[in-house]
Task: structure prediction
Amino acid sequence: MTTATSPNLALKPRTWFITGASTGFGRLLAEEVLKSGAKVIATARKIDTILDLEDKYPGQAKAFALDVTDYPQISSVVAQATSSYGPFGSVDVLVNNAGYGLAGAIEEVTEDEFMPMFQTNVFGLIHVTQTMLPHFRKQGSGHILNLSSIAGLASTPGLGYYNATKFAVEGLSEALAAELVPLGIRVTIVEPGPFRTDFLGRSSVLAETVIPDYDATSGNTRRYFVDQVGKQKGDPLRAVHAMMAVVDSPNPPLRLLLGSVALQRLRGKIASLQQEIAAWESTTLGADFPEGE
Result:
């Protein structure tokens, strides 16, 4: 039986549409899907970073320049990708991968720093998804992978704004999944822990303002971004093979946690929530009208 970590994972013939395909998970996923024999529409802000995929996989790969914060460009690229006259005639899998991180305390980060991240991580994902949905509804099938993070389930001092973008992806994706089940369209939220991609390097930003009072909290996160590059526990190749296996599964999960760190952090949060709920249960129940009123 082929496993999610097999380098020879064979997929059913599908066409994948991947945003942020120039680096990190997006690039590796595009390459592995192409190796499996499936087709890929790879998108990135700078098309020259992905054109080599067309050369390596003629007839299988098509590259488009796409900035997910440019809404007219989203409409144009999705229309070309899904047209019967397009490169492959249809799209079966949408991978909302484009995004980046930002480290800094809530007080330290300026609007000029956090707003572009929201535009990419949240609003870009929303617009790409909205633009693709009519195509999926028309064909009565499709699978959406929304790249979230363990940071979308458990917050960290110094990552508050990034946490906010990924919490938004979580809430949006839960509702979207419920809306699409009757239409034959699936949604999976991908929640990696730390992986050896370029997330801690070129895919993240450090706030310019540094307030010494936050050194023991957000300061630790800043140092982590610098010190842990290349030391993360997660294997990106195993992660993208897991994503491929989910798409090929007849019963894909709503959530796909990736890596032991993500699992440990979520279990820790669940335990903390259960303790707090129990400790305050009488206050919680006391907020209702008394029985019979």
